[in-house]
Amino acid sequence: MSGFGLVLLLMVSPFVDALKARGVSSRWSSGAAQSIAVCVAGCAMAAFSFVDASGPRLVLIALAFGSIAITIPLHYMTTAEVVPPAQRGAVFGIVAGVGTLPGLVAPFLSGHLIDAAGTPSSGCTTAFFVAGAVMLTAGTFALAAIRPEHDARRLGLGSDPQPSRS
Fold first, then answer.
1. What's the whole-model pTM score?
2. DSSP-H helix ranges across 22-164
């Protein structure tokens, strides 16, 4: 993780807490924050292959890999709002397992894109552009789909999820 990512990671919790203290919903305080972070990372990832100067390229790399770091704690905060405490461990385990799938697919896909390209450089450009496009698509979808308060009400959890009684 970069120093930039560490700074963002340390700032995210107080930022979200301040927004919630001002009455901002979880959808916008943590859901939008993680969605926007993924979109920013995706745009930076797609763009840095097209930038030749080392200074701007370094900034784009820091944005791409640093801003994505804040999504993990925000994801767990958002998930905790819609999952009863008794089931959180199991859900977090499943989410962590599913979260490793891109790490299995991305190297294969990137290698294929690099091998299929005319030059390794153009293959890397394509691979980074595809990764950025996927991130931008996922971030945009998440911005529309993350609605913890709505989901908690729909699941009968109210605003403070309680363990289910069997």
1. 0.82
2. 26, 32-48, 54-66, 71-80, 85-99, 101-116, 120-145, 148-154
